[in-house]
Specification:
Layout lengths: L5 E5 L3 H11 L4 E5 L2 H10 L4 E5 L7 H9 L9 E6 L6 H7 L3 E5 L3 H48 L6 H21 L6 H10 L12 H4 L7 H25 L7 H9 L20 H15 L11 H10 L11 H9 L1 H16 L4
Parallel strand pairs: 1-2, 1-3, 3-4, 4-5
C-alpha cells in the first residue's frame, strides 16, 4: 500500500497551523512545528514531501530555515511553499529566488491551498521519477562500458594465455595505488582522474592483438628483432584507442587516459623503457601507476617460465632490483603509495592464491 504524501506545516502560531491542518488533514499525513529549528529536526527524522513555511517567526525565520535546507543534502530537494500574510513585507520574486516553489497568502483560501500543494507534490513526483530513471540509465551505461572494456582487454590478454584474473588483479592493485596518490597528492591526481585510471587499466596491453603468435607465444628468449616487434604493442594499442577516441570525441574524452596507459606503461622513470625512452615526470601518472601494478602482478603470478613469487619476494625485487626490474624504473610517488597500501596489496595477492587453490566443480 502506497503511503500518503506528507506535509510539514511550520508556523509559530497554533491557530494558523490548525487552519491549514483542517484543510489538508484528510488528504495528507500532517507534521507540525512551531519553530524553524524544530522543523529542521522533523525533516531529518521523517519522510517529508513538502513544507508549508511561515516567513515571520521568532529565533529562526522562514528565510533562514530555507537557507539551511538548501545547504543540507538530504533536505535541499524538499519543495517549500512560503506562508505570508497580507501585511507581510514579502517580495515574491525574492522568495522564489531563494528557492521557494510558491507562496500562499493568509487568510487561507482552501481551494487555493489544495491546488498549490497538489501541483507542487506532482512536480516533485515527476522530478523524483526522472532522477531515478536517469540514475538507472547512468548505471546501465556504466556497466555496459565496463563490460566492453573488459571484453576488449580479454581479447588481447587471452592471446598470450593470460586470463581475466590477471586483468582483475592488476586493476585492483592499480585502484589501491591510484586512490592513495589521489589522497596524498590531490593536486597531482584528482578523484575523477583516479577513477578513469582504474576503469581504463585493463586496456594497457590492448595492442597485443597486433603482435604475431610466433612472438607473443614464444617460450624462449626473443631475438632483438622479435623484441622490437613486441614493443610495438604499446603504440599500436594507443593508435587503435586514439582512433576510437576520435569517434567518441564529440561526446567525451574518456579514452584519453586509456591511450596514455597503453602507450607509456612500459616507460621507465630512469628513461630506459620503451617505446619512446622518456623519463621522470614526462611519463603520465596513469601509465606510471599501471606500470608498477602490472610488474607486481607479473612477479606474483605463475608463468610458463617461472613460479609465482611471494609478496615479500616481489616487493624485494621491485625495491632492490634483480637485474631486470629496478627501483629506478618506477615513479617515486608510486613506490611511496605501494608502501602505504602494502598490507591491502598483500591481502589481495593471498586471497587470489587461495581462490586458485579451490578445485573446479
Amino acid at each position: 500500500m502506497n503511503r500518503k504524501n506528507s506535509v510539514l506545516i511550520v508556523d509559530d502560531r497554533k491557530e494558523n497551523i490548525t487552519a491549514l491542518k483542517s484543510i489538508l488533514d484528510e488528504l495528507y499525513t500532517i507534521y507540525i512545528s512551531l519553530s524553524g529549528n524544530i522543523a529542521l529536526e522533523v525533516m531529518k527524522k521523517n519522510p517529508i514531501d513538502i513544507v508549508l513555511l511561515d516567513i515571520n517567526m521568532p529565533v529562526m525565520d522562514g528565510i533562514e530555515v530555507l537557507s539551511i535546507m538548501k545547504q543540507t543534502p538530504e533536505l535541499k530537494n524538499i519543495p517549500v511553499i512560503f506562508i505570508t500574510s497580507e501585511t507581510d513585507e514579502f517580495n515574491e520574486s525574492k522568495g522564489l529566488t531563494l528557492g521557494a516553489v510558491d507562496y500562499i497568502k493568509k487568510p487561507y483560501n482552501p481551494n487555493i491551498v489544495c491546488i498549490k500543494v497538489k501541483n507542487q507534490l506532482e512536480n516533485k513526483m515527476y522530478r523524483d521519477e526522472l532522477e531515478e530513471l536517469v540514475d538507472i540509465r547512468t548505471k546501465e551505461l556504466q556497466v555496459s562500458r565496463e563490460a566492453i572494456i573488459m571484453g576488449m582487454s580479454l581479447l588481447a590478454e587471452g592471446r598470450d594465455q593470460s586470463t581475466g584474473d590477471h586483468i582483475k588483479r592488476m586493476q585492483r592493485v592499480t585502484k589501491l595505488l591510484a586512490e592513495q596518490i589521489s589522497k596524498e597528492h590531490p593536486d597531482l591526481l584528482t578523484r575523477e582522474e583516479c577513477d578513469k585510471i582504474v576503469l581504463m587499466a585493463p586496456l594497457h596491453d590492448i595492442g597485443k592483438v597486433y603482435v604475431a603468435d610466433s612472438i607473443l607465444l614464444k617460450p624462449g628468449k626473443l631475438t632483438d628483432e622479435e623484441f622490437e616487434k613486441m614493443k610495438a604493442h604499446t603504440y599500436m594499442g594507443a593508435e587503435v584507442l586514439k582512433k576510437t577516441e576520435s569517434i567518441l570525441s564529440e561526446y567525451n574524452n574518456i579514452l584519453h587516459t586509456a591511450v596514455e596507459i597503453a602507450e607509456y606503461h612500459h616507460e621507465k622513470y630512469n628513461g630506459r623503457g620503451y617505446p619512446h625512452g622518456i623519463q621522470g615526470d614526462k611519463i603520465p601518472m596513469s601509465a606510471a601507476i599501471c606500470a608498477l601494478a602490472d610488474v607486481y602482478d607479473a612477479l606474483t603470478s605463475d608463468r610458463p617460465y617461472k613460479k609465482a613469487f611471494t609478496h615479500e619476494e616481489a616487493k624485494g625485487i621491485i625495491f632492490e632490483g634483480d637485474g631486470r626490474v629496478e627501483a629506478q624504473h618506477f615513479n617515486p610517488l608510486v613506490l611511496e603509495a605501494f608502501l602505504a597500501v602494502e598490507a591491502e596489496i598483500k591481502s589481495l595477492t593471498l586471497a587470489s592464491k587461495e581462490q586458485d587453490l579451490v578445485p573446479e566443480r
